[in-house]
């Protein structure tokens, strides 16, 4: 009797539990369909599911873009600092990794006695003893993450529990898909608005005036400039109202040609004189093409009107002049001119086409990357304006702005490197030591499944080049190799001195000596048809969003501008990219260049003359220097700086000048001061200058824009420390 009663009680409890779960699912389903806030949906799912299963711990972990990390996106019952911050690596022996790999729920009745999986530290720190998780499928059928309920006591989660969580996961998947599509729709609408704005701007800037007509030839629209040209109102110009403005001698020709085009669907092309609102007539070329539907039926006409008055005047003048020449000479001359014009037009069209293709690819890539960077900067700046912002968030947003600005500077540097327009700071250094200094960085950009081997000689490998650009080139080459191996393989970095440079891409080789830095990977290789294009800016064979296509172009530009080159050898399973740089002699190594102790007060007692024509940069520079204890005077031109310095320097300790300014530039100012005030240090600052690229900085210290406060103050200390007292 007692046994039957226990069974009935247990069945009653199960039915009650199922009803609670169904009620929770129904309540959550309403929210998932109604709310547009994904974080609200995820948090409420955690709360309701935990409550229904009798626990106060639940979380949603979102799979990150690398496919190897889970972020605790939402949850209930966790200590502050977990949700939105804690990440978990997806390992093969973890419960999370098993769930993502198999797609099946994972239950652990007691993790302290569980031998199948490993568990994250933060789970143990919260006293979790049992758990159950299910996968959430996101947009496109890809995993969004995991939905997990945790218990502080050992517990056996049964099939009803996992099915209950699966129901939640399905609702979450639908919500994720719905919100993803909403975001995509918003982006599509924004692109449509941008396209419409672009079209309107194109119409306004186009010298030709657009117009349209219905299939019967009745005018349905005219550009505003047609109305301005003729003085007709929009209503008067519609239909056949345009016939009021042609010259009487041209009206019949225009009308007959238009009727013929409408009847035959042939293109319309007529030149005629049109009455001008200012009086008199102007020659216009009027053209139109039929607009057809998918069945080829004409559903309207698109037309343009072009002012050819000047051309007609020139043609009339030429005609009058040619009337004095013999017929054969006139005909032959006309033929030769036409042939020459056509040839030149064809050549110009080809050049323009090639130029526009290159510019389009370059500007499109730059716009894409810079808009991404500006999004981070603008978003961080907006968030910094919010009241009651915590110190931690303020620091994070400030760091985001600083880091993104550095990435933007790196992007412009890569573009200038490819174009061979960057301002390099060549110095002599040992390539071996620089390889060691970036080894940690290379470890961070390569996968743990990529084995990195080095082959470095015992003797020095001295190079004369820009150290920063050299290190950037190494990282770019390593990243390219990593991506080629798809996260697993072997990367070998070899350095050789006294190397000769072979013939590369049709250019003759050179005996050198050169220092050769070769990176060899075991990836799939580079297709033969792509090898000639891998150094083009923004050329990439990767998926959208997985590469800018600027890495190897930076390597190429840096090598060429430094007097070297880059060679590529590739076959399936092995690719070697070799960077050749001119080798330097041991006697060219720099001596001791120590400067004043940086622990001294920054700029106390020192006066800086800031020369900057840009108001915002000038104001920022002076405020920055004053924050470090310098006294400053700001002038907006080199001429004003010369007047202020006079013949004795007027008490200034150093001059900090922009390079590109109206009138006298910064380099000319620095060279003049070197003759007039030889002991006055001059520091130049520039984002880009063709003079610097072609002729260098003439031995003056150069700070690249955008610069940091630390960089400027370091250069100022060095300059002032070396000044005679």
Major sheet size, sense and barrel closure: 6 strands, antiparallel
- CATH homologous superfamily grouping of the largest domain: GAF domain
CATH class of the largest domain: Alpha Beta
User: How many domains comprise the coordinates?
Assistant: 5
Could you report the average pLDDT, rounded to the nearest whole number?
Answer: 79
Give the class from helix and strand content and strand pairing.
alpha+beta
Distance between the termini: 107 Å
Query: Number of helix segments?
Result: 21
CATH level-3 fold name of the largest domain:
Beta-Lactamase
Tell me roughly what share of residues is in helical segments.
40-55%
Structural description of this entry:
The protein has 725 residues and is α+β, with helices and mostly antiparallel strands. It folds into 5 domains: 13-183, Beta-Lactamase; 209-322, PAS domain (Beta-Lactamase); 344-418, Helix Hairpins; 420-588, 2-Layer Sandwich (Heat Shock Protein 90), CATH 3.30.565.10; 607-721, Response regulator (Rossmann fold, 3-Layer(aba) Sandwich), CATH 3.40.50.2300. Helices cover 46% and strands 22% of the residues. The strands form 5 sheets. Strands 3-2-1-6-5-4 form a 6-stranded antiparallel β-sheet, sandwiched between helices. Strands 8-7-11-10-9 form a 5-stranded antiparallel β-sheet, sandwiched between helices. A 5-stranded mixed β-sheet has the order 13-15-16-18-17, covered by helices on one side. Helix 14 packs antiparallel against helix 16 (551-561). The longest helix has 58 residues, at 327-384.
């Amino acid at each position: 009797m007692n046994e039957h009663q226990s069974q009935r009680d247990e069945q009653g409890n199960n039915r009650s539990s199922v009803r609670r779960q169904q009620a929770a699912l129904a309540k959550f389903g309403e929210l998932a369909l109604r709310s547009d806030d994904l974080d609200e949906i995820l948090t409420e799912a955690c709360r309701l599911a935990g409550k229904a299963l009798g626990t106060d711990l639940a979380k949603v972990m979102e799979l990150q873009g690398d496919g190897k990390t889970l972020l605790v996106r939402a949850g209930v019952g966790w200590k502050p600092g977990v949700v939105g911050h804690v990440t978990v690596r997806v390992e093969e022996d973890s419960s999370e990794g098993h769930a993502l790999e198999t797609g099946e729920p994972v239950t652990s009745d007691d993790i302290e006695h569980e031998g199948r999986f490993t568990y994250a530290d933060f789970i143990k720190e919260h006293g979790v003893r049992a758990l159950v998780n299910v996968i959430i499928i996101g947009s496109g059928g890809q995993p969004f993450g995991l939905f997990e309920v945790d218990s502080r006591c050992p517990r056996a989660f049964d099939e009803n529990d996992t099915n209950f969580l699966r129901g939640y996961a399905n609702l979450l998947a639908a919500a994720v898909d719905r919100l993803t599509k909403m975001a995509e729709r918003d982006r599509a609408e924004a692109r449509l608005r941008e396209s419409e704005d672009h079209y309107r701007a194109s119409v306004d800037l186009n010298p030709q005036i657009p117009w349209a007509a219905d299939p019967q030839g009745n005018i349905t629209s005219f550009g505003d400039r047609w109305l301005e040209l003729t003085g007709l109102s929009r209503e008067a110009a519609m239909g056949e109202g345009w016939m009021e403005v042609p010259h009487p001698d041209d009206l019949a020709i225009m009308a007959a040609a238009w009727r013929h085009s409408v009847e035959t669907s042939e293109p319309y092309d007529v030149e005629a004189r049109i009455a001008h609102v200012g009086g008199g007539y102007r020659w216009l070329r009027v053209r139109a093409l039929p607009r057809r539907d998918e069945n080829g039926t004409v559903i309207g006409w698109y037309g343009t009107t072009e002012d050819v008055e000047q051309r007609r005047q020139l043609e009339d003048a030429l005609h009058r002049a040619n009337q004095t020449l013999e017929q054969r000479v006139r005909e032959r001359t006309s033929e030769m001119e036409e042939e020459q014009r056509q040839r030149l037009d064809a050549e110009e069209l080809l050049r323009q086409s090639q130029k526009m293709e290159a510019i389009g690819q370059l500007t499109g890539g730059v716009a894409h990357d810079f808009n991404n960077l500006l999004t981070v900067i603008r978003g961080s700046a907006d968030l910094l304006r919010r009241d009651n912002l915590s110190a931690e968030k303020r620091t994070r947003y400030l760091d985001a702005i600083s880091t993104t600005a550095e990435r933007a500077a790196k992007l412009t540097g890569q573009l200038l490197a490819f174009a061979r327009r960057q301002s390099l700071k060549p110095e002599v250094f040992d390539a071996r030591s620089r390889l060691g200094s970036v080894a940690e960085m290379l470890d961070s950009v390569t996968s743990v499944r990529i084995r990195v081997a080095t082959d470095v000689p015992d003797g020095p490998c001295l190079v004369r080049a820009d150290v920063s650009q050299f290190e950037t080139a190494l990282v770019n080459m390593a990243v390219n190799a990593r991506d080629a191996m798809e996260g697993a393989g072997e990367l070998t970095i070899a350095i050789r001195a006294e190397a000769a440079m072979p013939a590369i891409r049709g250019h003759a080789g050179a005996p050198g000596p050169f220092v050769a830095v070769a990176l060899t990977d075991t990836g799939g290789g580079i297709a033969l048809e792509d090898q000639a294009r891998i150094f083009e800016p923004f050329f990439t064979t990767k998926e959208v969003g997985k590469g800018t296509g600027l890495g190897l172009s930076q390597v190429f530009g840096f090598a060429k501008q430094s007097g070297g080159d880059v060679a590529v050898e590739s076959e399936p399973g092995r690719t070697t990219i070799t960077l050749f740089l001119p080798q330097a002699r041991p006697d060219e190594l720099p001596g001791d260049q120590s400067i004043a102790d940086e622990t001294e007060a920054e700029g106390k007692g020192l006066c800086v003359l800031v020369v900057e024509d840009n108001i915002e940069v000038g104001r920022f520079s002076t405020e920055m220097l004053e924050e470090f204890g310098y006294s400053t005077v700001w002038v907006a031109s080199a001429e004003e700086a010369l007047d202020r310095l006079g013949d004795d320097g007027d008490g200034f300790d150093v001059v900090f000048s922009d390079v590109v300014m109206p009138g006298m530039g910064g380099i000319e100012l620095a060279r003049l001061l070197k003759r007039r005030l030889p002991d006055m240090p001059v520091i130049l600052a520039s984002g880009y200058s063709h003079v610097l690229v072609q002729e260098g900085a003439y031995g003056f210290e150069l700070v690249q824009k955008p610069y940091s406060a630390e960089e400027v103050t370091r250069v100022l200390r060095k300059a002032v420390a070396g000044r005679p007292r």
